[in-house]
Amino acid sequence: MRARQQLDTKVRDRTTHVRGVGTSPPRPDAPLKVLGRFAYASDLEIDGMLWGATVRSPHPRARISGIDISQALAIRGVATVLTAEDVPGHRFYGIKVADQPVLATHEVRYVGEPVAIVAADHPETARRAIEAVRVDYEVRAPMTDPEEALSGAGDLIDPGGNVARHVRIRHGDVSSARSRAEVVVRGEYASGVQDPAFLGPEAGLAVPDGSGGVDLYVAAQWIHDDRRQVAAALGLDPSRVRLTLSGVGGAFGGREDLSVHIHACMLALRIGRPVKMTYNREESFVGHVHRHPSRIRVELGARRDGTLVYSKVRLLLDGGAYTSTSRIVIANASYFAAGAYKVDHVEIDGYAVYTNNPPRGAMRGFGAVQACYAIESAMDSLAGELDMDPVELRICNAIQEGDLLPTGQGVDGPTPTRELLEHLRRLPLPSDRLVAGEDLRRLPGGVGNTTHGEAVVRGVGYALGMKAIGFSGGVDDISTARVSVSVAGGRPVAEVYSAASECGQGIVAVQAQIVRTELGIDSVTVRPADTDIGDAGSSAASRQTWMTGGAVEGACHGVRELILERAARRLGRSQGDLVLTPRGIMTPGEGEALLHLADLLCHDTIEHTFVYHHRPTEPIDDVRGQGDAHIAFAYAAHRAVVDVDTELGLVRVVELATAQDVGKAMNPQAVEGQIEGGSAQGLGLALLEEVQVEDGFVKNASFTDYLIPTILDMPPMDVRLFEFPHPDSPYGLNGVGEPPTLSSTPAIVNALRDATGLDLPRVPVRPTDLIASLHGDGSPGG
Amino acid sequence: MLIEVTVNGRRRTAENVWAGESLLYVLRERLGLRGSKDACEQGECGSCSVYLDGDLVCACLVSAGQADGAEVVTVEGLADGESLHPIQQAYVSEGAVQCGFCTPGLILATHCLLEANSDPSDDEIREALAGNLCRCTGYEKIVSAVRLAAMETAVG
User: Fold this and answer.
1) What is the ipTM, given to two decimal places?
2) CATH of B86-155, one of 3.30.70.790, 3.40.50.2020, 1.10.150.120, 2.30.30.90
3) Which residues of B touch A249 (CB under 8 A)?
């Protein structure tokens, strides 16, 4: 109720615009995208530009004893070749910790690490040039096993030690609670390496400004933080480095770290000409970070009636060669390692370690995906041990508002865990009768014609997920927006200036919707994002609609005040008597506009800039991991129905249903799109997607060998949006991008377990894991 | 070498084409038609789908020399001036576009499907579009867009 009352006071001046908040107007960039005219970073071109390319390490671990660039420089068409010595500023960069060399100096720590860069007049010339750069390596034995890295027995990968971070959370007293548990289950769950696999490759165009500065047009998630890192590496004041967001072909966390940014700028500044860099797909697989592979041990103790007594979890994430976001990914995994459940006694130890594998970092869900897969697997295992319905077990333990998290923070905001599960449980199940002559496309193996129903078994699985929205742990995260109103063609028009990164999620549409709702102005243009505008923060952590939505709303309020102030002067009325509506300036209750906005403004522009802050948080402490670290929480649940061919291990997901509390569906169509797309990535992790890394080498760096779900792999989805308004956010909205990626994976794997009776301790589940006859003891190898 | 190709009804030539160049490279870098996207260079993702003499192909797998003298239709050739083709309009209105990188290829694949089958079932839609990867949408709204486009084209 509290939420609703607060909202009521905020909505007084809002309009109900037909293309405002809560509606689904077409996104403004869609026409250009369907016409093929939308300019992605890889589409950029400018007269006289050269092509950059990157020399990368072929070894997971080696010392560099020498680099000879002379043969590369001798190739016709090659303009320059640069190495670490040419880095003008700081030689190390990183989103959180500056530990990654811009170009390798004396050592390389992973296959694919950049060692040198070239610029040439044709991409093929550039490719030949990188092959002509001679690098002398003294190859060393790599350390690629995260357990070995954690044990401290092996060599140091990082001078600071091989543990990037240990997160220790202690809540209640697990050792004394153990004796009260009547049923205990233990399991170890592993997940493979998932690739963000955005379709638009890493790309950027750097243009020297002629006076020592540079303009960079690039696909990114947070151009202001990128600028901070680029400027430091270039040794330039940030004001001399301007970033403009170009078209982003998907991101999913994989564009949080820099890719081409510094390299393209270095080349362009050195030769005084524009330089474009684009990775091909193979390079892209090492050109961005992946989701951390995980090994998570879960021990759950419960009473016979199903009440959870304690939870003890150890998480190990392989962070690869450099830090990237590993320290906060492991924190996020640890925060939610006990799941969306009330447990009074919890011990969590989360470790992220350095190895000689490619760096791992942000990907949609940010550690909570791996944790959710593990805890939701353990919950099904506990339900089996208790001989209890898995949904009932979840409902009876589901976290509620006011319950304490393992970090000691009381859960606040809408917490409809039970409603989500109840909804899914009540949904009718698809028919499980295989009709004679069933379309092959509806059977495992599809038109491969591998079965007509023989040896096919059905399973149903559920999972519930919980994640924090926005940046946790004491960060004062902001977003800035400026809204201006003027008159064009006799009508009021609005412009939004925001550096929020549009990666496909639809923030451009939502910003315009907010302006229409707040100011009643139909014609709204969202200007391109660049660093001349204030910082909007990252399109990450499911935060952008909340944060930038709040900034745009605040800017609109400022503009509205200025308009009404001016109108009050003009009309000789009290400002408090006036409201701004789509028809003009009015007094409440009167039918006629007193003044049209266009007449009030004439040739003037009214604008306001607003900086939005979320509520303050604090970091957790190092000893017991306690602290009010989070802004808000979001919840989603999935039900999966699968058919498994137990002879061939082939799977067809028959249906994927989901329920999610989105607070307020700002643009229902876009919200559904986020949920459907996020669920598909969860399906990929459950069944298909794994970057196979052996001894530090990626073995499947292509879309031929790394399988993302096709339209045939995705079942029809049943998406139910719940809208319980969040008391702290603009419009009551909640973050929506990541939660669907949490519960999708374990729901599918729980369905596979239900169908086969197998333990399935590892994702992605491979066909050989599902063939019962290969696993006499019911426990497939891992 | 010199390549002559008819693209979207216009005769175009590209000079000094290197023998290793693909039709996709010629379209994008030499003719400035960047609607066809380059996402995998292996014919796996369908983002570069174009019609080559009436067949839907991945332009990344066609060498430039193979396209000499051919008729090519790209995504830029579908719309009638500024007004969207019904398939394009259906993708916009059904929310089938997010990042949009896969969209040009999917629109051409949809066009190819509807030319052959004006009233496809959902299973037929899924089979026909299985060569086009999308990472954002989960495909649900793409299926809706194809259904709508089929309806609109049937009416039209």
Assistant:
1) 0.98
2) 1.10.150.120
3) 37, 39, 99-101
